[in-house]
């Protein structure tokens, strides 16, 4: 990783003359009171390495007759200078060959010199940067869309199931009603069949009475007509046989009542209303159960998608343990950005920015007064473990500060000569395209 070995700044914003040799790993804190030039140091570094888009609107120190001068020596041997009336850029490799901004852009991460741009972005924008880094953004977006579609579908199914269940509960139920609606024509037909059967029974009863009368008459006639006894006895015997048949036919006859059918005909609409109510209740309960089954199946599908998302992120090369993306938001140790501490936010930002361009081993941090001493030490220790260099400012003059800026100078440091003449840099390391 490429870091800043030393830097010299003159006449930039509030800085008069400052020389710093940052620690290779961990925190280099530029302390001092307000309006002494601390932030000007970071602005000067950003301008030197990031190009003219980071040039301050009033770059030259007020009251200075000498133009700004920037001189930075990087750990890969490159020397970066801006000097002269137009603050022209000069990038020199260890062999004295000149290069330009394109070379610096190849390893200087933009967010490393403009961290507020990342920290002030939305949580979703931060999450998108992280997903882009680890190369799972498109796949995770696809899974999130699928999860949302399943969730919306399940919510609709659940609402329908609740409506069906509520409707089923509100429906009356009549256990005495038949399963299917009844027809008035069927009842009338059944009534006519019974009436016809009863009429036939009556006819047979009348026939029995007639035969009985004839039988009695013939008996009397036998007494009166002895001379016709043989003929009368023959007829009598015949009638006796007919009588036996008639008696057998009527012995088991039972007349059926049409009272229930007549009552059903009169109540057919009420009966059918109960039947329809029962059928509606049964259908609502069936529909509710079907939709509940669909809801449960969609729940399983949503859980499967969530497991796939988790596996995708678990297998990704994340820049920091505990860092993840949930529902499109950046999450660290289970907390979203607005619930993270200031130290955690800086740690997450630094890790992500480092991941954007692994060769960029430094980062600029402004206004670390938000951290207490314990948090500051914890953050510095983490930087050292990661081998990262951070140059930061803090409104303080305490022992935690590496240097103190007073009125544009480093307290206790001898003033630098104006416009340090260019000196060749004698180092053995050489630069080649694509190597640092």
UniProtKB/TrEMBL annotation:
<feature type="compositionally biased region" description="Polar residues">
    <location>
        <begin position="416"/>
        <end position="430"/>
    </location>
</feature>
<feature type="domain" description="Endonuclease GajA/Old nuclease/RecF-like AAA">
    <location>
        <begin position="3"/>
        <end position="309"/>
    </location>
</feature>
<keyword id="KW-0175">Coiled coil</keyword>
<feature type="region of interest" description="Disordered">
    <location>
        <begin position="415"/>
        <end position="436"/>
    </location>
</feature>
<dbReference type="Pfam" id="PF13175">
    <property type="entry name" value="AAA_15"/>
</dbReference>
<dbReference type="GO" id="GO:0016887">
    <property type="term" value="F:ATP hydrolysis activity"/>
</dbReference>
<feature type="coiled-coil region">
    <location>
        <begin position="208"/>
        <end position="315"/>
    </location>
</feature>
<dbReference type="GO" id="GO:0006302">
    <property type="term" value="P:double-strand break repair"/>
</dbReference>
<dbReference type="InterPro" id="IPR041685">
    <property type="entry name" value="AAA_GajA/Old/RecF-like"/>
</dbReference>
<protein>
    <recommendedName>
        <fullName>Endonuclease GajA/Old nuclease/RecF-like AAA domain-containing protein</fullName>
    </recommendedName>
</protein>
<dbReference type="InterPro" id="IPR027417">
    <property type="entry name" value="P-loop_NTPase"/>
</dbReference>
């Amino acid at each position: 990783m490429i870091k800043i070995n030393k830097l010299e700044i003159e006449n930039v914003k509030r800085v008069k003359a400052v020389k710093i040799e940052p620690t290779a790993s961990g925190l280099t804190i530029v302390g001092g009171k307000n309006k002494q030039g601390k932030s000007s140091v970071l602005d000067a570094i950003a301008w030197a390495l990031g190009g003219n888009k980071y040039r301050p609107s009033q770059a030259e120190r007020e009251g200075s007759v000498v133009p700004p001068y920037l001189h930075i020596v990087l750990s890969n041997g490159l020397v970066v200078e801006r000097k002269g009336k137009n603050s022209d850029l000069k990038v020199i490799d260890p062999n004295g060959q000149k290069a330009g901004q394109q070379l610096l852009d190849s390893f200087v991460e933009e967010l490393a010199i403009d961290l507020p741009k990342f920290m002030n972005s939305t949580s979703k924008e931060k999450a998108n940067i992280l997903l882009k880094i680890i190369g799972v953004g498109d796949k995770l977006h696809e899974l999130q869309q699928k999860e949302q579609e399943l969730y919306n579908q399940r919510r609709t199914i659940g609402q329908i199931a609740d409506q069906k269940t509520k409707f089923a509960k509100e429906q009356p139920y009549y256990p005495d009603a038949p399963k299917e609606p009844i027809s008035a024509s069927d009842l009338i037909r059944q009534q006519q069949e019974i009436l016809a059967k009863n009429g036939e029974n009556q006819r047979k009863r009348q026939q029995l009475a007639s035969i009985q009368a004839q039988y009695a008459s013939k008996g009397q006639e036998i007494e009166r007509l002895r001379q016709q006894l043989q003929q009368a006895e023959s007829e009598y015997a015949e009638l006796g046989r007919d009588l036996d048949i008639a008696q057998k036919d009527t012995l088991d006859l039972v007349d059926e009542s049409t009272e229930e059918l007549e009552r059903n005909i009169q109540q057919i609409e009420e009966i059918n209303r109960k039947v329809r109510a029962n059928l509606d209740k049964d259908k609502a309960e069936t529909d509710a159960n079907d939709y509940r089954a669909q809801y449960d199946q969609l729940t399983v599908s949503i859980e499967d998608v969530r497991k796939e998302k988790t596996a995708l992120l678990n297998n990704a090369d994340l820049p920091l343990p505990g860092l993840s993306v949930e529902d499109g938001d950046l999450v660290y140790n289970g907390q979203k950005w607005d619930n993270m501490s200031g130290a955690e936010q800086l740690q997450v930002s630094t890790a992500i920015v480092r991941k954007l361009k692994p060769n960029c081993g430094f980062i600029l941090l402004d206004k670390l007064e938000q951290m207490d001493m314990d948090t500051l030490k914890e953050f510095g220790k983490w930087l050292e473990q990661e081998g990262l260099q951070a140059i930061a400012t803090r409104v303080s003059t305490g022992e935690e500060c590496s240097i103190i800026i007073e009125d544009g100078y480093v307290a206790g440091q001898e003033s630098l000569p104006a416009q340090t003449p260019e000196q060749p840099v004698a180092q053995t390391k050489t630069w080649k395209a694509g190597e640092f």
